Amino acid sequence: MNSNSSRQERIIRIFTPVRCLNRDQMRRYHLGQMTEVEQHLVEHHLIDCDLCNDALTTLENTANIESYQQLSQQLSQYILREYAAGTQPAVRLQKLQQPMHHKTSRSFADSAQSYFWTIVFLAIGGGSVFALQQHLKHRPPLSTLPMRTADALVLPAPKGAALGDYQITAQETPQQQQQQPLVMQTKYSTRDTSRATIPVALKTDTAQKKKPVKDSALPKVQPADTNARKQIVQAPAPPPAAETPKEPQKEAPKEKAPEVTRAASEEKENDAPAKTEPAKPANGDDYLFRSAMQYQQQGDYGEAINQFRKLSDKGKYSERARYQMAICYRAKGQKGKARRLLRELANSESTLKSQAQTELNNMN
Amino acid sequence: MHLQLNNLSDKELLLRFRKFREREAAGVLLERYSHLLVAVCLPGLDAQHPADTVFPDLTVRLYNQMQGATGKMNDTIHGTVQQYFGKIRKGSGPQPAVRELEYRIEQAGSNPIEKTALAVRLENALGRLIPEDSELLNEFYLEHITLREIARRRNTAPAQIRERLRGIRQMVAGFMKEAAYE
Predict the structure, then answer these.
(1) Is A21 within 8 Å of chain B by CB?
(2) Which residue among A97, A108, A141, A201 is buried most deeply as judged by most CB within 10 Å?
(3) How far is B23 from chain A (nearest CA, A)?
(4) Å between B51 CA and nearest CA of chain A
(5) Do B27 and A72 touch (CB under 8 A)?
(6) What is the pLDDT of residue B37?
(7) Closest to B38 (Cβ–Cβ): which among A14, A75, A91?
(8) Hey, is the C-beta of B88 within 8 angstroms of any chain A C-beta?
């Protein structure tokens, strides 16, 4: 049984393929260093392989061995270098060299196209920058200011005339007054918490009300005051009932202070019952007046006049609205309307009588 | 990667090259046969065929042939070299019947039933050989006598014994093919 299986195995091996000789096997075959089994396997392979048979036949000539070893090593290195992963095959290189003129023309077209798009993008970018610059140049002046500046309406010191319920501390020096301009907060947001703004109508401190009023005159709006970047325009603060402006302006003339104080004290006496009432929150008139003031500061006199006109008929802002309308008309160049309004105010028993008269005199 | 490819057989490398276009697989295959390529080409190298041009050309040709080559790699390389140097191919070249029989035996692998059936059919085919061929086959394949010893006993060259054995193999493969058709 064993002899039969052994014979079958050997018969099967007649047609069992054997690999070609490697370098070491070739060297050992020539040197006669192979075992009998190994030598038989090599000869078994040589029966069928012309390549190995021819190679061994060539190497039987000892003169070829040296060149064989040298060339074999060089060819091995060449193949490893040439056919490594990621290298361009030589065949493809040859094929790529043939249509070179097509590639040249195509590359020119590609480069021209890339130049065109580069120029287009540059033109678009330059145009965008120019448009942005023009927009920034011609946009409304106040919109260039940061939000915090736009939120606050800065009221400079009024001149001369006393203002009803405005009470200003007399202890403050002119330097302090200069450092702390009167600021009316027009927008209540959570952002500006550190700003030293003085709300117009916040407290009903009776002690402060009893302090002498140094100056509470209406502000004077300059005709050339169209640039909103010069935010410190002379604008009157709204006269809420229990409002107490704390900081006088530095332009306030000192010689008028006693008169103002007397006038204020008289008004205090007249308004004493009303001041005992609690301060009312800002109503629609307050908001309308503030927005009108803001329009005026922005230089939009037409809209400011419209807003003031709504307030001029009735309410506590009527006199101030008419006064501000006159200022706006004067700024717009409509001096006839401005004079008429100021004259009405000067002829009436308004608290702004003296201020209106002064402005009228200035216009004449 | 190169080391991993070195462990693959010729068939697997050719498959990878054809399927995935792995240039490195072709390089491993060419490098595996480079020493044989040099040895076969050595007699043909001269002033008209310097090694600097012969081997790059041959590697490129072999690289192109690998994409559609059928059969064994050694046959492909030998045929390409003979064609390159303008020599007439010796012998019968690739033997389809022998390759088919080798493939069947390789497929049988470790299946004892299949191998026994193939052995029986091979025994029958060997029985159809003439006694001289059968004796030569027994001496070389079954008794493991070397070619030189057989040639010495018969006062002939080892190359002639090789050619004769090659012919006998092809004959047996032909008998096996005929038996399969019957």
Answers:
(1) yes
(2) A201
(3) 6
(4) 8
(5) no
(6) 92
(7) A75
(8) no
Provide the shortest C-alpha distance from residue B40 to chain A (in Å).
Answer: 5
Beta bridge partners of A182: A155
Residue B18's CATH number: 1.10.1740
Nearest CB among A11, A23, A91 relative to B35 is that of A23
Closest C-alpha among B61, B37, B38 to residue A94: B61
* DSSP 8-state class, residue A255: G
Do B70 and B110 lie in one domain? The reply is no
Please tell me whether residues B20 and B78 are part of one structural domain: yes
Nearest to A187 by CA among A149, A213, A160, A221: A149
Q: Residue A124 above 90 pLDDT?
A: yes
ipTM value greater than 0.95: no
Contact status, residue A205 vs residue A219, Cβ threshold 8 Å: no
CA distance B22 to B20: 5
Cβ(A312)–Cβ(A321) below 8 Å: yes
Which residues in chain A are closer than 8 Å to B11, comparing Cβ atoms? none
Q: Decide: B85 and B49 in contact? Cβ < 8 Å.
A: yes
- Identify whether B90 is part of a domain: no
Q: Is residue B89 part of a domain?
A: no
Name every chain A residue with its beta carbon within 8 A of the beta carbon of B100. Answer: none
Angle at A23 between CA A17 and CA A26, to 5 degrees: 75
Domain's final residue, options B62, B84, B106? B84
Mark whether B54 and B20 lie in a shared domain.
Answer: yes
Longest CA–CA span in chain A (Å) reads 147
Which residues, 6 or more positions from A335, have their beta carbon under 8 angstroms from its beta carbon? A329, A363
A81 and B CB contact within 8 Å: no
**Testing the interface with A: which of B45, B74, B161 to mutate, by most A Cβ within 10 A?**
B74
B162 contact A CB<8A: yes
CB A10 within 8 A of CB B141: yes
CB A197 within 8 A of CB A152: yes
- Write out pLDDT tens, residues B132-182: 999 999 899 888 898 989 999 999 999 999 999 999 988 998 888 887 776
CA angle A97, B14, B71 (to 5 degrees): 110
* B64 CB within 8 Å of a chain A CB: yes
CA–CA distances in Å: residue A45 to residues A51, A54, A56, A115, B74 = 10, 12, 12, 65, 11
Contact B141 A10 (CB under 8 A): yes
Best of B6, B8, B34 to disrupt the A interface by mutation (most A CBs within 10 Å)? B34
Does the CB of B173 have a partner CB in chain A at under 8 Å?
A: yes
Where residue A154 falls among pLDDT bands split at 50, 70, 90? very low
What pLDDT sits at residue A95?
Answer: 43
**Contact with chain B for residue A55, Cβ under 8 A:** yes
pLDDT (0 to 100) of residue B157 = 92
